[in-house]
Amino acid sequence: MEKVKKQVSTDMTKGSPAKLICLFALPLLAGNVLQQFYNMVDSIVVGNFVGDAALAAVGTGFPVIFMLVSLFMGMSTGATVMISQYYGAGDRERMKKTIGTIYNAMMIGAIPLTVAGILLAGPLLRLMNVPEDAFGMARTYVMVVFAGVVGNLGYNVNAGILQGLGNSKTPLLFLSIACGMNVVLDLLFVAVFHWGVFGAAFATIIAQFCSWVFGILYINKHYPDLHIHPFRKNFDRRLFAQAMKLGIPSGIQQALFSVGIMVLQTLINRYDTAFIAGFQGANKLDTFSFMPVQSFSIAMTTYVGQNIGAGKMERVNRGLLAGTAMSAGVNVVMALVLIPLGGVCMRMFSQDLAVIEAGCAYLNRVMPFYFIFSFLSLLNAVMRGAGETVVPMVSTLLSLWLVRLPAAYWLADHFGRDNLFYCYAIGWTVGLLLAGAYYLTGRWKRKSLIAGGASA
User: Fold this and answer.
1) What pLDDT score does 173 carry?
2) Quick one: pLDDT band at residue 4, thresholds 50, 70, 90?
3) pLDDT of 448
4) DSSP line for 330-386
5) CB contact at 8 A, 381 and 316
6) φ, ψ for residue 352 (rounded to 5)?
7) What's residue 408's pLDDT?
8) In this model, does residue 358 exceed pLDDT 80?
9) Is 299 within 8 Å of 25 (Cβ atoms)?
10) Pick the residue with more confidence: 231 or 397?
11) Which residues neighbour 11 within 8 Å (Cβ) at sequence distance 6 or greater?
12) First vs last Cα of the chain: how many Å apart?
C-alpha cells in the first residue's frame, strides 16, 4: 500500500498548503480547460457547419442534461469526501468498501436516469420555451446524450475516487483521450457525414464511454487493493447511507441549480435566436473563469478531507487563505483578458454581429465580479471537505432562487435585456454572506467522519 501511495497518490497532510493545493489544482485546471474545449467543439462545429439555430440548440440542451445527471453526480462528491478522510486516517478497508458501494449504486441508477432523460427531453425543453427553429435539434441532442449517460457518470465517479486519493493527474489523462476522440468524431460525424446535432451528441457519448473504461482499467492496475468490479455486488448499506448523506445535498444543489439555469434560460429565450446564441457562446468563454474556481475548490475539498481525517485541523484555515488568493487572482487575470477581447473570442462561434454583441454584453457584466464567486466556492469547498454539505447547498440555492433569478427578471424588465446579467454578481454576494456567516461559527468542524478529526 505504501508503495502504491507514493507512486500515484498525494499526502496533503504535510508540507506547504499553498504548494499542495496549487499542484493538485493545476491538473484539474488543465482537465477543465480540456473539458471546456471538449464542450466548445460541439458548439463550434455545429455553429459553423449547421447554423446559429444548432448552436442555440446544443447550448439550450445542456441545462436539461446537467439537471438530471447532477442528482446522481452527488455520489462522486460523497466519494471524494469519504475516501479523502479515510485516506487521511489510513483506513484502507473502508476505502475499498466505499468504492464498491458507490459503483453498485451508479450502475443501478444509470438505468432509470437514461429512461427519464429520453422521455423528459421534449417536455422540459418546452417548459424552457425553446424557439421552434432550435427545439427539434435540442431534443435530439438531449436524447442521444442520455442514451449513453453511463459513460458520463462512470468517468465522474472514477475522477472522484482518484481525487480523494490525492491523484488529480490521472483524470486529466482520461479527459485528454476523450477530448481528442470527441474532436475527431465531431468533425467526422458533423462536417463529413452531415449528421448535425445528432452527430455531435453521438461523438460525445462515445468519447465519454471510452474515458470511463480507461479509468476502470487504470484504477485496477495501479490500485489493485481497491479493484473496481462494475457488475459484482459489493454493497454496504451503512457506507451507502453515509455517501448519500454527503452526496445528496450536493446532488440536490446541482440539480436545483441547473433548474435555476433553465429558468434563466427561459428568460433568455424570450428574445431572438441571435441573443440566445450569443449568451450560449459567452457562457462557453466565461467558463474559463469558472474552471480555476472549480479546480481550486475540488483541491480544497480533498485537502481539507485528508487533513481532518488525519486530525490536523490547524492546517485547514491556512489552506483556505492560500486557495482563495490563488483562485481570485486567476479570475482577475481572466477578466482583464476576456473583457477587451470578448468580441474577437465570440467570432469563434458566429460571425453574426448580433450574436457577438449579445455575448459581449454578458462578459462585460459578469467577468468583473468573478472574484466574489471565488470566495464563495472556496468556503463551500472547505465545509464539504469537512463533511458539511447541507449549508453549501442552502447558501447556494437561496442566493440563486431568492436573489439571482428574481433580480434577472427585474433587471430585464426595468433596464433592458443586456443588464439582466448583473444578477450574477448580486446572487454571489448574498451567497458569500450566508456561507461566510456559518463558516465563522465553526460548527462545520464537527461533521468529520473520523473520530480523531472531529475531536481535533
Assistant:
1) 85
2) very low
3) 78
4) HHHHHHHHHHHHHHHHHTTT---HHHHHHHHHHHHHHGGGHHHHHHHHHHHHHHHHH
5) no
6) -70, 125
7) 94
8) yes
9) yes
10) 397
11) 5, 166, 306
12) 26
- Distance (Å) of CA 25 to CA 28, 117, 291, 392: 5, 32, 10, 21
> Which residues does 407 contact at the CB level (< 8 Å), separation at least 6?
422, 423, 426, 427
**CB-based contact 38:340 (threshold 8 Å):** no
Tell me which residue of 84, 73, 82 sits closest to 106, measured CA to CA.
73
Residue 233 pLDDT > 80: no
Return the CA Rg of the chain. 21
What's the pLDDT tens digit per position in 288-307? Answer: 788 888 889 989 998 998 89
Residue owning grid cell 470566495: 375
Q: Give me the amino acid identity at 202.
A: F
Question: What is the C-alpha to C-alpha distance for residues 385 and 298, in angstroms, rounded to an integer?
Answer: 9
Lookup result for grid cell 421534449: 122
- Quick check: 182 and 207 in contact, CB under 8 A? yes
pLDDT digits (tens, 9 = 90+) for 142-181: 999 999 999 989 988 898 889 888 888 888 888 888 888 9
Q: Which residues contact 12 (CB under 8 A, 6 or more apart)?
A: 20, 21, 24, 166, 302, 303, 306, 307
Cα 355 to Cα 157: distance, rounded to the nearest angstrom: 37
Q: Measure Cα distances from 180 to 81, 160, 391, 456 in Å.
A: 30, 22, 38, 46
Q: What does pTM read for this prediction?
A: 0.77
Is the sign of the CA dihedral 259, 260, 262, 263 positive or negative?
Answer: positive
Query: For residues 383, 386, 387 and 392, what is the CA-based torsion angle, rounded to 10 degrees?
Result: 0
Q: What is the DSSP letter of 132?
A: H
